[in-house]
Protein backbone atom coordinates (compact mmCIF):
# COMPACT_ATOMS: atom_id res chain seq x y z
CA UNK A 1 0.00 0.00 0.00
CA UNK A 2 2.73 2.50 0.95
CA UNK A 3 4.83 1.59 -2.09
CA UNK A 4 1.81 2.13 -4.35
CA UNK A 5 1.18 5.53 -2.77
CA UNK A 6 4.82 6.52 -3.19
CA UNK A 7 4.80 5.38 -6.81
CA UNK A 8 1.63 7.37 -7.45
CA UNK A 9 3.11 10.48 -5.82
CA UNK A 10 6.29 10.11 -7.86
CA UNK A 11 4.27 9.88 -11.07
CA UNK A 12 2.24 12.95 -10.12
CA UNK A 13 5.37 14.96 -9.37
CA UNK A 14 6.94 13.85 -12.64
CA UNK A 15 3.87 14.90 -14.58
CA UNK A 16 3.96 18.43 -13.16
CA UNK A 17 6.15 20.88 -15.01
CA UNK A 18 9.63 21.01 -13.54
CA UNK A 19 9.65 24.81 -13.25
CA UNK A 20 6.74 24.66 -10.81
CA UNK A 21 9.00 23.09 -8.16
CA UNK A 22 11.70 24.91 -6.22
CA UNK A 23 14.36 23.87 -3.77
CA UNK A 24 14.80 25.94 -0.60
CA UNK A 25 17.03 28.54 -2.27
CA UNK A 26 14.60 28.89 -5.17
CA UNK A 27 11.69 29.29 -2.76
CA UNK A 28 13.62 31.94 -0.83
CA UNK A 29 14.31 33.89 -3.99
CA UNK A 30 10.72 33.48 -5.20
CA UNK A 31 9.43 34.93 -1.92
CA UNK A 32 12.09 37.67 -2.03
CA UNK A 33 13.32 36.99 1.50
CA UNK A 34 16.75 37.13 3.09
CA UNK A 35 18.23 33.86 4.31
CA UNK A 36 17.40 34.78 7.90
CA UNK A 37 13.79 35.69 7.03
CA UNK A 38 13.37 32.48 5.04
CA UNK A 39 14.70 30.36 7.91
CA UNK A 40 12.01 31.85 10.17
CA UNK A 41 9.26 31.32 7.57
CA UNK A 42 10.25 27.86 6.33
CA UNK A 43 8.45 25.82 9.02
CA UNK A 44 5.12 27.43 8.09
CA UNK A 45 5.50 27.03 4.31
CA UNK A 46 3.70 24.29 2.38
CA UNK A 47 6.37 21.75 1.45
CA UNK A 48 6.79 18.30 0.00
CA UNK A 49 9.34 15.90 1.39
CA UNK A 50 11.06 13.90 -1.32
CA UNK A 51 13.44 12.31 1.16
CA UNK A 52 14.71 13.10 4.63
CA UNK A 53 17.25 15.47 3.10
CA UNK A 54 15.32 16.95 0.21
CA UNK A 55 12.37 19.32 0.34
CA UNK A 56 10.63 20.86 -2.64
CA UNK A 57 8.24 23.78 -2.70
CA UNK A 58 5.46 24.21 -5.25
CA UNK A 59 5.35 27.73 -6.73
CA UNK A 60 1.55 27.88 -6.79
CA UNK A 61 1.28 26.73 -3.17
CA UNK A 62 3.86 29.33 -2.12
CA UNK A 63 1.90 32.03 -3.93
CA UNK A 64 -1.36 30.90 -2.28
CA UNK A 65 0.35 30.86 1.12
CA UNK A 66 1.64 34.38 0.54
CA UNK A 67 -1.77 35.69 -0.55
CA UNK A 68 -3.45 34.16 2.52
CA UNK A 69 -1.14 36.04 4.90
Q: State the domain count.
A: 1
Strand order of the largest sheet: 1-3-2
Query: Terminal Cα separation, in Å?
Result: 36 Å
Biggest beta sheet summary: 3 strands, antiparallel
Low-confidence stretches: none
> Which oligomeric state applies?
single chain
Run of helices and strands: HEHHEEH
**Number of strand elements:** 3
Structural class: alpha+beta
What does this entry look like structurally?
The chain has one domain (20-68). It has four helices and three strands, in the order H-E-H-H-E-E-H. It has a three-stranded antiparallel sheet with strand order 1-3-2. The longest helix has 14 residues, at 2-15. With 69 residues, it is α+β, with helices and mostly antiparallel strands.
Put the structure in a nutshell.
The chain is of the alpha+beta class. It has helices spanning 2-15, 24-30, 35-41, 59-68; strands spanning 21-22, 48-51, 54-58.
Task: Record the SSE blueprint.
Layout (H helix, E strand, L loop, with lengths): L1 H14 L5 E2 L1 H7 L4 H7 L6 E4 L2 E5 H10 L1
Antiparallel strand pairs: 1-3, 2-3
Key features of this structure:
single chain; 69 residues; alpha+beta; 3-stranded antiparallel sheet; 4 helices; 3 strands; 55% helix; 16% strand
